Fold this protein.
Amino acid sequence: MAQTLEQRRRNAKFAKEQEARMGKSDDQIKKRTKETPKSPISPVWIGILGFVVFGGLLFEALSRMFA
């Protein structure tokens, strides 16, 4: 079965990454991995803040409609 263009691209990318790892220790390889930045505010506080802001906007809109 012949390889598709996508498979060839992915195989070439994988081979390039493996070649870059050759001769390096595990510590050097682990340093290259990208760490995802962690948000300084927890999702719970973001939810509470969103509830206060958007809830306030909703109540303000309702009070202007019915007042």
In short: The longest helix spans residues 43-66. The helical segments are 5-21, 26-32, 43-66.
